[in-house]
Design a protein that fits this description.
alpha+beta, 6-stranded mixed β-sheet, 6 helices
Length: about 270
């Protein structure tokens, strides 16, 4: 299915570059951003706006980067709630008592790749370096979500799992949801072996989800897969926005686990109700 016009726009503020979704901003209900690697203090392969403390960067650098992005987005870094991801499809509903978990204080959240809330002033954070992020906004019930989805999460239906949990917790109507798919590794770079191809072909029906070319390995179009998952969950096509950028291709803008063979930093997806 053709993607509607729209998508993300890039913003540069105080030397930091990030992307946002104009349609989300127009509701005046959220502040949000998907970061690039530009504008932070980290060095080496984590240069420069890295948010992952598990890949060799110093805690001091990462905390400074959180402080920088919080100032840009008009949030409090000590309030950020970080997803406790495991490349699965669990979703955790958080509230004000969870502020700071995973960033300021040790997290006691269960393993989860998605976070949702209907509380104002609780910034939700997921990390990415080829895996995609999906933003969710229900402007009617006034609730939000964000998730991390690698290929395993996409196959297992992370996109619609978030919708189902927002329906259960907040009474969200899927047709009211607005969703945004961040930059991630694209079909131009995401070649996979037959077992992964089989998994995607079994999970998705769309003709453009698995890309096959003569003489080459098949590749996966994660954007098309997530879009199919969201549409089946009841989200309207015109309410799904894509960043349309490959993290592996743009080394000057994005971290990429595959391109950099694991020696890389992480971007962040951040969203908060206001």
């Amino acid at each position: 299915m053709d993607k509607p016009k729209g998508g993300f726009k890039y913003i540069e503020k105080d030397g930091i570059e990030y992307a946002t979704i104009p349609e989300f901003e127009h509701t005046k209900l959220v502040r949000m951003g998907f970061t690039s690697r530009i504008g932070g203090v980290s060095t080496g392969f984590s240069s420069s706006l890295n948010f992952n403390i598990k890949r060799g960067d110093s805690l001091e650098n990462v905390r400074k980067n959180y402080s920088l992005i919080s100032d840009v987005l008009s949030m409090k870094a000590d309030d950020f709630v970080l997803v406790n991801y495991e490349h699965g499809v669990n979703v955790c509903c958080v509230n004000k008592k969870d502020k700071g978990k995973g960033i300021k204080i040790t997290s006691d959240l269960p393993y989860c790749d998605g976070l949702i809330t209907n509380k104002v002033g609780v910034p939700l954070v997921t990390l990415h370096a080829d895996c995609l992020g999906i933003f969710y906004l229900d402007p009617i019930k006034r609730c939000i979500g964000v998730c991390h989805a690698g290929w395993k999460g996409v196959v297992l239906g992370m996109g619609n799992k978030m919708v189902e949990r927002m329906q259960k917790e907040f009474g969200t109507e899927p047709s009211d949801l607005m969703c945004g798919i961040t930059a991630h590794i694209g079909p131009c770079c995401f070649e996979v072996d037959k077992p992964v191809v089989d998994a995607f072909e079994n999970a998705f029906e769309g003709k453009d989800t698995v890309v096959k070319q003569a003489g080459k390995k098949a590749s996966i179009n994660l954007d098309a897969c997530v879009r199919e998952s969201l549409l089946k969950a009841g989200v309207k096509n015109e309410n799904i926005f894509s960043q349309d950028a490959c993290t592996s291709c743009q080394s000057d803008r994005f971290f990429s686990h595959r391109r950099d063979k694991g020696k890389t930093g992480s971007m962040a997806s951040i969203i908060m109700l206001v």
